[in-house]
Structure formats: structure tokens, C-alpha cells
């Protein structure tokens, strides 16, 4: 096989210009499966809460600490994992994260008290919080620019489909084997995936090129992408002083963008975590049967998957910012419509859950794609993980406010309608992202923000 140089001298040129290779498909599929398991294990406690509360005879709102502990774990791990991923690589952290949340779920299946459940959900959150930013970054660095939005949103479908799978499986598994069996499912699947990840998942080509500066490893990966032997490419110039990733995304050039990313993501996650943790309980409090409430939660997740694909397709054609803002505005309208559907039967509830998933979770997925265009490779994993971690404060706030509302006997419909406010905040922050900023470096601007 002839050895050929990379046209233009840069590794991104070949990644962007080549057809999708088997290596890239392997990265996308494995990260899709990681996101599927991340989604499954993140929402598991929300679907099982009615069953756990009934068996342990807990009062309304008693499981709020378990919901919150998982999100706190997500937040802490996200901050630490991003910094580590930008220093030691995406792959080793992904492997460790999957092992952590798999083993934590296995232990949860045998927990016997609320205190143990809270502690184990925190540990589970640590693994889940490390996995998502590493998977998103890895996929974004192997995806060609022309299809990056669709590839990333398709990967995010794994997260929402994992959540939907919980909704579909919960009534079946719990009826036959009890709620603990669902935690066994949430443990066996990631632990079974680990050997495949170890065997097939490569390190990020962007990390190898721009952080580790391993020309031989980059050339080997490019050869697999191109289907021919490729000479070691020219690498981007190393800065005179190696920048700290934190210093990059908090620098004057990125500071305002970073604040808007955190605000929009926090508002979006407030909506998302409130719905995925509380929607089944809200519906049961209104007299909806537990099985129907669980299926409504599954419809929410299925709508998120469908919305991610639709929004990714729209973003590649019309620009990420316009589409994301439009979906957040749609989510605000949908929040106000819950009052009109609760007494219309199970079919209407399932349809409403699906629509909320398209707009809330689909919009949130689209926002993650928009966020990948903001930071350069040297700070991308750190910037995205800090965005996720700080944004999860919004998720914690939503869970806590919902729990306080439930404990105070606030009508669950009122709590659902209140989600219109964070939807409007997210729309304004996302719409302001590309107003009056210095442009990001060309490498980081692959997703158009029009």
C-alpha cells in the first residue's frame, strides 16, 4: 500500500474530507451504547421511586435526597473528569466511569435503607457524570465537520432511548421480580460492555494530536480512517506556554460565552431532571395508574430520541442557534398545556409525554451540539464537563423545588406549568450566544451557529 501525505498537512483535513470509516463507526456505536446506559441508569431512580416508596412506606417527597444525591455526583464528577480527560485522555476515564456506575447499581440492588440508597446514588452519579462529557468529546473529535451535528445528536439518542427502555421495562420487571431487579439490569449491561470498550474504543485523535502530540499514533488512526497508509501529519504548533484548560474557557475571549452556556444548560437541565425524576410520581399523585405513569415517562424519553434526530437534521441545514432557540420556546408552550391533557386518557398522556420529550430533551440535545463549537481541543472536554456540572445545579434546583412543592401539596400540574419559565431563560441565553463575541478558533467552529 502506498504511503501518502495528508492533504493540507493537518489531521482534521483528512477526518473532515474522508467517508465515514469502520473506526469512526465503532467510536460512534460504542459511545451510543455508553450514552444508552448513562440514560438508563440516570433515570432509573425516577421510574422506581413509586415502587420503592410503596415498599418502604415512605411519605411523599422522601426520596428527594436520593434524586439529589445522584445529580450531585454527576456535577462533581463532571468537573473533575473534564480536567483529567484533557490531561490523561478520554478513553481511560470512559472505561473507569462505566465500571463505577455498573458496580454501584449492583450494590444498589441489595441496599436496605434510604440512607444507603442515597449514598449509592451519589456513587452512581460519579460514574455517570464522568462518562457523558468524555463520550461527547470523543465523538465530536472523530466526526467530520459536515455531519457533526447529526452524529452527536444521534449519539444523544442513546441517552433518551436508555431512559425510554427503563419506562418500558419497569412495569414488566417489577411485576415479576420487584424493583431491585431493575438495578441488576442497570449493572449487568455496563459491566458486560466493558470488555468491548477495552478492545475496540480508541483514544481521541484530537487529544493524541494536540495534547500528547503523538504523530505516530495519529498517523495510525488516520490510516484506518482513510483506508490507506498515511504519513505522520503536521501537528498544530504547541503554544509557548501550555495553557491550563480552566484558564482558556474562563479567559476574556470565552468568559461571556461560558456564562451563557452555563445559564442555558442549567435552565435546560432544570426542566430535564424535573421531568425525568418526577413525571411518573406527579402523574400517580394525580390518580394516574403507576403503569400508565411509567409509560408516560418512557414516552418522554422516546420523544427525546426522536427530537434529537429531527433537531440534528434541522441544525445541519438551518444553523444550530436558531433551531435550539425554537425548541426551547416550544418547550415553554408545552409546559403550559399539561393542564389540558391530564383528564383526556392514557393515549393523550403518552402523546403529551412524547411531545415534551421532543421539545425539552430534544432541545437540550441540540444545545450540547451547539456547545461543542465553542471551545478549542485543549479545553473542550474541560469546558463541556464544567458546563454540564455547573448546569446540573439547575437540575438539583429543579428536583428540590419539585420535592418542596410535593411536600407542600402544590398541585403537580402547577409544578409542570412552572417549567415554562426556565424554558424561556434557556431560549434567551442560547439566542445570545453568538452576539458580540470574538470568534472561536477555526478548529472549534465546525458546527455553524447561524
UniProtKB/TrEMBL annotation:
It is a multi-pass membrane protein. PROSITE patterns: MFS, SUGAR_TRANSPORT_1, SUGAR_TRANSPORT_2. It comes from the Bacteria. GO terms for cellular component: plasma membrane. The chain crosses the membrane at residues 25-52, 64-85, 92-110, 116-138, 150-169, 181-199, 260-279, 291-311, 323-341, 347-378, 390-408, 414-433. Residues 27-438 form the Major facilitator superfamily (MFS) profile domain. Its main location: membrane. It holds the Pfam family MFS_1. It is found in: Membrane. One of its GO terms (molecular function) is carboxylic acid transmembrane transporter activity. Keywords: Membrane, Transmembrane, Transmembrane helix. Coiled coil: none annotated. This is AAHS family 4-hydroxybenzoate transporter-like MFS transporter. It comes from Pseudoduganella umbonata.
Amino acid at each position: 500500500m502506498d504511503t501518502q501525505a495528508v492533504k493540507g498537512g493537518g489531521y482534521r483535513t483528512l477526518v473532515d474530507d474522508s467517508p465515514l470509516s469502520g473506526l469512526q463507526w465503532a467510536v460512534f456505536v460504542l459511545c451510543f451504547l455508553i450514552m444508552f446506559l448513562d440514560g438508563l441508569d440516570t433515570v432509573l431512580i425516577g421510574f422506581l421511586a413509586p415502587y420503592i416508596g410503596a415498599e418502604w412506606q415512605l411519605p411523599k417527597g422522601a426520596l428527594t435526597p436520593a434524586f439529589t444525591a445522584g445529580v450531585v455526583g454527576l456535577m462533581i464528577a463532571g468537573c473533575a473528569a473534564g480536567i483529567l480527560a484533557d490531561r490523561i485522555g478520554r478513553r481511560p476515564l470512559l472505561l473507569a466511569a462505566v465500571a463505577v456506575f455498573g458496580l454501584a447499581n449492583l450494590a444498589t440492588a441489595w441496599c436496605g435503607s434510604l440512607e444507603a440508597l442515597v449514598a449509592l446514588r451519589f456513587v452512581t452519579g460519579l460514574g455517570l457524570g464522568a462518562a457523558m462529557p468524555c463520550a461527547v468529546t470523543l465523538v465530536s473529535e472523530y466526526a467530520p465537520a459536515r455531519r457533526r451535528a447529526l452524529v452527536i445528536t444521534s449519539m444523544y439518542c442513546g441517552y433518551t432511548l436508555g431512559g425510554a427502555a427503563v419506562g418500558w421495562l419497569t412495569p414488566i420487571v417489577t411485576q415479576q421480580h420487584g424493583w431491585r431487579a431493575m438495578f441488576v439490569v442497570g449493572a449487568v449491561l455496563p459491566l458486560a460492555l466493558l470488555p468491548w470498550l477495552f478492545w475496540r474504543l480508541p483514544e481521541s485523535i484530537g487529544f493524541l494530536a494536540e495534547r500528547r502530540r503523538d504523530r505516530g499514533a495519529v498517523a495510525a488512526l488516520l490510516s484506518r480512517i482513510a483506508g490507506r497508509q498515511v504519513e505522520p501529519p503536521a501537528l498544530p504548533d504547541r503554544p509557548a506556554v501550555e495553557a491550563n484548560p480552566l484558564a482558556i474557557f474562563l479567559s476574556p475571549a470565552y468568559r461571556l460565552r461560558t456564562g451563557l452556556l452555563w445559564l442555558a444548560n442549567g435552565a435546560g437541565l432544570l426542566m430535564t431532571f424535573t421531568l425525568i425524576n418526577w413525571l411518573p410520581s406527579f402523574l400517580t399523585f394525580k390518580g394516574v395508574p403507576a403503569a400508565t405513569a411509567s409509560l408516560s415517562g418512557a414516552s418522554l424519553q422516546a420523544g427525546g430520541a426522536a427530537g434529537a434526530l429531527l433537531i440534528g437534521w434541522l441544525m445541519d441545514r438551518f444553523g444550530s442557534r436558531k433551531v435550539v432557540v425554537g425548541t426551547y420556546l416550544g418547550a415553554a408552550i408545552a409546559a403550559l398545556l399539561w393542564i389540558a391533557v391530564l383528564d383526556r386518557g392514557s393515549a393523550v398522556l403518552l402523546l403529551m409525554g412524547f411531545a415534551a420529550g421532543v421539545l425539552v430533551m430534544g432541545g437540550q440535545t441540540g444545545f450540547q451540539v451547539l456547545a461543542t463549537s465553542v471551545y478549542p481541543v485543549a479545553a473542550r472536554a474541560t469546558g463541556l464537563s464544567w458546563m454540564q456540572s455547573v448546569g446540573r445545579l439547575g437540575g438539583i434546583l429543579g428536583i428540590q423545588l419539585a420535592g418542596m412543592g410535593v411536600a407542600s401539596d402544590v398541585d403537580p400540574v402547577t409544578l409542570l406549568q412552572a417549567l415554562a419559565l426556565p424554558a424561556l431563560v434557556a431560549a434567551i441565553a442560547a439566542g445570545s450566544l453568538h452576539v458580540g463575541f470574538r470568534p472561536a478558533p477555526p478548529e472549534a467552529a465546525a458546527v455553524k451557529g447561524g
